[in-house]
Specification:
about 30% helix; six-stranded parallel β-sheet
């Protein structure tokens, strides 16, 4: 039986994963010494068992991840994997200004020295064709599109799926096909981290349908709020918004929720909007590793 070790904040996802794959959840004793250094203890016997460390905030918990992985190997685990439903450090995939750190490459190199395998969901692969261009370990990128399409088909009457930009067209088309709906895409121009302009095509042919605005990451809210405004200007009803990764910094979620009919996310990150679980996808991928 697999052993699942959730790092702080990922206990709920680990419980859903255990329910999906029958794994056993291991306890983690974690505290800080007076000088701030980390103490880590595995409260389970991992001998001759595969262990999956669950961690969607490797920025905050990387040292805990590294200490736990090394301890598990010392204690006889047969393999130590990282399940990161949300994988950070994927946006800085190039040096856009002189002197910038290309953090995606550095982070991948560090993680590759700590665990044997990586499983994640919809990483931000913009300039890389696959995770294995970055990571020196087997890396599986799962796709939430079928789950999102199925949710839309169940929950939304007469949907119109709308992607956030031209690059999302293939993704939007796949979700729309799964939901049995038409689709359209917006035109997005990003001028900076927090400066986005959006233009919508003529959607009058879809009058009477419920727009469903999709995005991979809900973070600063500007893409979603600007998209909602464009749709409303064409006389469409407030859209349902569906995102894969619910980052939503600051007041972003409140601003989107005020403008949308409903905001829904997958559970790659814990958030009140979570309505679509990716745990069965992850469980199936981990099971395949034993085949």
């Amino acid at each position: 039986m697999r052993l699942l070790l959730p790092l702080p904040g990922d206990e709920a996802f680990a419980a859903r994963l255990a329910a999906a794959d029958g794994g056993e959840i291991a306890g983690l004793e974690f505290r800080r010494f007076p000088d701030g250094e980390r103490y880590v203890r595995i409260a389970a016997d991992p001998r001759e068992r595969p262990v999956d460390i669950i961690c969607s905030n490797a920025d905050q918990h990387f040292l805990t991840l590294a200490f736990a992985a090394d301890a598990l190997r010392d204690l006889g685990a047969s393999e130590v994997n990282l399940v990161a439903p949300y994988l950070g450090y994927m946006r800085q995939d190039a040096r856009f200004r002189p002197g910038e750190a290309v953090s995606s490459r550095t982070f991948a190199r560090l993680v590759s020295t700590v665990v044997d395998r990586l499983v994640t969901v919809d990483p931000h692969l913009h300039r890389f064709g696959s995770l294995e261009e970055l990571y020196g370990i087997p890396a599986t990128a799962l796709r939430a599109a079928p789950l999102i399409g199925d949710w839309i088909a169940r929950e939304v009457t007469a949907p119109l799926v709308i992607g956030p930009d031209a690059e999302s067209e293939q993704w939007a088309a796949e979700i729309a096909a799964r939901a049995g709906a038409p689709y359209a895409v917006l035109a997005k121009r990003r001028h900076g981290d927090r400066d986005v302009t959006i233009a919508a095509p003529d959607l009058r042919a879809h009058a009477g349908r419920q727009p469903v605005l999709i995005d991979d990451i809900g973070s600063s809210r500007r893409t979603l709020v600007a998209g909602i405004a464009e749709l409303r200007q064409q006389g469409l009803p407030a859209p349902v918004c569906v995102v894969v990764h619910a980052l939503f910094s600051g007041d972003a979620f409140a601003r989107v929720a005020d403008a949308a009919a409903r905001v829904v996310s997958t559970d790659t990150l814990p958030h009140p909007s979570n309505a679509i679980t990716v745990a069965p996808l992850v469980a199936a991928a981990l099971g395949d590793s034993l085949a």
